[in-house]
Amino acid sequence: xxxxxxxxxxxxxxxxxxxxxxxxxxxxxxxxxxxxxxxxxxxxxxxxxxxxxxxxxxxxxxxxxxxxxxxxxxxxxxxxxxxxxxxxxxxxxxxxxxxxxxxxxxxxxxxxxxxxxxxxxxxxxxxxxxxxxxxxxxxxxxxxxxxxxxxxxxxxxxxxxxxxxxxxxxxxxxxxxxxxxxxxxxxxxxxxxxxxxxxxxxxxxxxxxxxxxxxxxxxxxxxxx
Length: 225
Hints:
The chain is of the alpha+beta class. Helix content is 22%, strand content 29%. The chain has 2 domains: 79 residues, Gyrase A, domain 2, CATH 3.30.1360.40; 134 residues, Beta Barrel (Cyclophilin). The relative contact order is 0.17.
């Protein structure tokens, strides 16, 4: 565990230089333990691939006290710990009109569109982090056969619900925004809804699976093209 000051009331805890499901599980476990230890001193926790940002109340504690409490947390029991992880299935309409880069990706990889869809839906993805925008969940890892680098020139606007691939990551754009990932389909599920809880359907540590659906069901579930 490596702890670095990140601001006047925050610390970053690093557990590894590598991204693995085991490291992600340790991050999830550590967040759970920190919530129990810091209690009223804690303002927020922001987990990422191999690190955890801890934001505390500077009026009730300080860096020194928080650092000592963090160092006292043991990670030895994390392998036996079963958290509140859930498996969420997200429907996706894969097609040329819903995924602008689907055909190009298939051609680049020397396969047909159905092969790409099968590979993308055959994997269970771990939610490693949520960032860039509220509800933007970084999911890994995509099968190497369909992994694609980011576009050389990002698009000025990617539609809400766009399902995309960048390297061995995949994600669903929660809102319309600029983006440089490869678009392969569209998901009708709202990834961020600030008006009512749960505000996001997934959390860090959850597992996501994608399910291919047809055009009619996509529209019936509220999808738009």
